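Record pair follows.
FIRST:
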Amino acid sequence: MVPRHTSFSERTSRRQARGLHPVEQKKSANWSAVWPDIRELIRPRRGQLLLGLALIIISRVAGLVLPASTKFLIDDVLANRRVELLAPLILAVLGATAVQGVTGFWLTHLLSKSAQKLIAELRCKVQAHVGRLPVVYFDTNKSGQLVSRIMNDVEGVRNLVGTGLVEFVGGLLTAVLSFVVLLNISPKLTLMALAVVSVFTLVLRYAFNTLRPIFRERGKITAEVTGRLTETLGGIRVVKGYHAEEREERVFAAGAQRILNNVMQSLTGVALLSLSATVLLGIVGALVMYMGGRQILDGTLTLGGFVTFTAFMAFLVAPVFQVVGIGTQLTEAVAGLERTREILDEQAEDRDPCRTETLPPLQGEVRFDQVEFHYEEGKPVLRGVSFEAAPGTVTALVGSSGSGKSTTIGLIAAFHKPCAGRVLVDGVDLSAVRLDSYRTQIGVVLQETFLFDGTIRENVAFAKPEASEEQILEACRIARVDEFVERFPDGYETVVGERGVRLSGGQKQRVSIARAILADPRILILDEATSSLDSETEAMIQEGLAYLMRGRTTFVIAHRLSTIRRSDQILVMEGGEIVERGTHEELYEARGRYHELYTRQHGLERNLFLAPGEGDSAEEPAEAP
């Protein structure tokens, strides 16, 4: 029975069913393991590869005309003085050379372009897949490492559909044709040479099995070093602020040394292969000279036959040298393909077979039903959390650090699935909902505002690229973005720099709020959206937030009094549980955990968080830091 081709996801499911650990899978990976993936890459390009093989056959056959002509030149033209054969022989050689040159040009032109297109397609495929992986994947993988794997790991794959593989096949074809010619000239010499070459193939197999893990390790090290370098450049202000330039230099130098050691290790292996191939050529050459010379003296081999045999022997041995060069490239390509396959094996969020429900326009009712969650087995983060948020209401989450507030918000945003219990939106279990139908109806404003390195207009329009100019300007007006944009010479076309570095914290937050206003979400998440701002800036932003929260189901994690006072309910969390719930007045009068948190903040941070005059009322609420 012909084995059915299996996809990345099918192979992943089988591996998970067998209970293999990913590390164990890496150890057992080999050429046969990635062959289905190679077939998957080659199948759409089989027409180009077949044309390339046809060109290489024509090129290789044409390349054999020159060595084959030497026998006729020596034994017929020169020995028998048949001058009339010289011109046709020369024309045949020139014609074959022209054919070889033209086919070689088109071969390189065709396959090199095909290989570069494949690299671009693979990069796009891997990037698209990475972008659809769950948030937890990015919690355990550095962005710099992922960038390296997207850009670098697929680079070597060009040898699988480029000139590398076809040249390798062409070399083997030439070796077969040469073997047939050599057998016709001298079977004894041919079998002797073949025996030596066969021994060397065993050496090659062992060498490439040894080199492949080295190339895999190089990809891993390169990703780690690239990841740390990306972090260093992204956090350059922190590095300079703590005068840690030399420390980061040492870290990078250590990583560069690891890469160098790996390269040196692989170069040693390749050099040993080259040495072995050179020794092989010397042994074969010496044996051919000795045995060929004896056969000429015995009269069983002509001089022209000996010269032709020597020329064709080079074509028989040449693939061995090609294996050293091209084989190393193919081994590196397979190692990169293995690492690429590891990423593509990860299940994307939108490929979850459990997510089948498509949500209509939301009313905004959110309910937690005995929700439990953990990041690591045996270390619960949420314990039986239950609450309900009616459409259009504001729910605030307060509590000490590590109490589970951000995890609760993450579950509402569908960044995670509950380990037990249910999160219901309009009565539908969120774990069964198609994410594209849900996340288009929610908006998120985070404490650490992320802006892309583009213009202010582009960053606001990120929430709704199809928005009109009037809609963008209206969102900016509500969020008070227009107030500071007018001071910039380029206005809304001002480039904000990487992560919005050219804007102040308050300016970036206002752009973030404008982006959320433009999205017009039904469910809004404010994760400490104003905690890092001064009171004056916060007062300006609160106007935009008040408009943004109007009529929307809102969840707030905040350290500021003004946001909490607008909450319809406050959930006090400790140790992953809701220990108190109610309005500010109810919780304050209960004199429990909320009262404790409030009075602590009110006493320590009163002058920082309260505007002038607000501190006169002992009943004014404050949220815990």
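SECOND:
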Amino acid sequence: MVAISEVMATALQAYRVGNLVQAEWLCNQVLEQQQTYVPALHLLGAIAQQTGRLESAIAHYERAITLDPRHAEAHGNLAVAFQERGEWENAATHFQRSLALNPNHAPTHFNAGNLALTQKRLDEAILHYQHAIALNPNYARAYTNLGNAFRAQGQLEAAIVQYQQVLTLVPTDAQAYTNFGNALQAQGQPEAAIAYYQSALALQPTNAEVYFNLGNAFRLMMQAENAIAHYQQALTLKPYWAAVHSNLALCLQEEQHYEAAIAHFQQAVDLEPTDAEAHNNLGVMLYEMNELARAIAHCQQAIDLQPEFAEAHLNLSMALLANGDYHQGFREYEWRWQAQDAKQPSLPGSRWDGSALEGRTLLLYTEQGLGDAIQFIRYVPLLARQHRVLVECPNPLLRLFGMIPNVELIPQGSSLPAFDVHLPLMSLPYILGTTLETIPHQVPYLSVPADCKWSIADRTHSLETSTESSSERATGKRVDPPLRLGIVWASGLPKDPRQRRFSRNRTAPLTAFMNRLRPLKVELYSLQVGVHAADIARYGFQTCLHDLSSQLRDFGDTAAAIDQLDLIISVDTAVAHLAGALAKPVWIVLPFAGDWRWLLHRKDSPWYPTMRLFRQPSPGDWEGVMAEVVQALEERLDHEHSS
């Protein structure tokens, strides 16, 4: 009869070469002779674990440990099995017992580190990996996971050192190149990361993860075409990867391929229906396509999944407001502080809740853009009639807002006088319960400051215009004064990076304005300030467009200029708000999906009675919307000429 030890030796050899069926059969033969033979029970547990039969593996390990409580390797393997089954506490217990019995076993330290890394106990994971490496300096997998733990802690330089060590030990380790690239990308070095990803791809040309990472790196470098191509390749290899669909959709959205973006966002949601971020992204994209009902549904779904998801609340608010639901929309808009980078100032006293002031002093402070301040300052005169109201105000608006009666202005950044309650200006519609029907729309509610009276005629020189035909000059016939038209074509750049894409959508090329307006019998005046004022010289329009930018020191001067013009045509900017607040005729040229305050499918604004809205017929179509503007302008000119 063959000795049990010889049979077990044969079983172990079969196990090592991967002949698990023979190894299992031999172990069972041993147990038929001796049911309590621990090495056979332990090996059966390892075979069952390797073939995915966790329940059987755990049973064999537990039987072995019952018979030999000091079997360190059985404790370690049982811990791994419990970890695979998600029983982390049991796993931790048996790792501790295994290491107490054999503290110098590198694989157990490695596996215990993996459990700690999974549980995000990073310091503990790092210690275990370092123990494993101290016991086995050539333990490449331990270096890899130690690097991953350092990267999870944000210690990117330390992570890179570990990945370098892996590549020293195993130069063909594709995952090490990928990890190295991930660390470099986290350091803000996407170009360097790309080189490592490409090395990984040379070793594993069908690795979808590497294509995904390359897509992310190219997107960070603003190389949209390359990013899209690599995301698409990742999906070719792994079609049901929700994160790739999401990132591809974000890239397509930035490139204004809206229908394709919606399709991939929808795929991401279908694949991961409990992913709040995916629902939020789809909601934003649907908002940009004016599909407000669907946008609201997906933003609400994101909130249902993650109730404190501030950005989803903010996006929901904008969709609700654009849809005319001011009651719920302004309530949700209060999430803007948590969703954006801006922080509410730390102020004494309490936030005003709309209750009777009864002699208390109210401090209002501006936020976000200057146009927002101009729009919502309309509420202040209503409050200031009966109460003491202070307004903390940015310098460009001081002279303009100084014309509001009974209001004390404090320059932004100055020391604040005593007050009792405070509120951000844009929370007034919520606190006061504004609906579409109750918007304070009486204009003008602003006026030109007394010290801003200056003449456009005195500060501009004659330009070559088409206001007088050669036949009129030859006959000496009286020419009616031409229409004075002020234009603004570019929006400012918001501080919050997440709002910058919307700002870009609101900026038109100057050529889209001038190619349409220049042939008309009008005098053109630019109210554009900032970097885009240089567009006039850049595109050679100095001879037909008066540049007023040097005269516009603040919005008081801008108000004085607007007061002398007949009509303002502007993209969605503070100048448009100012013209509306001054009760000046103003036409706003809006992107396909305008800001929430302009609602949908309206040519008028409940906020500004003298305003007319023109919308792009399709995303990005400035030529199309300007054609509609010029048609309306020609009709106005014909009417004025005939009358």
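COMMENT: Residues 622-642 form the longest helix (21 residues).
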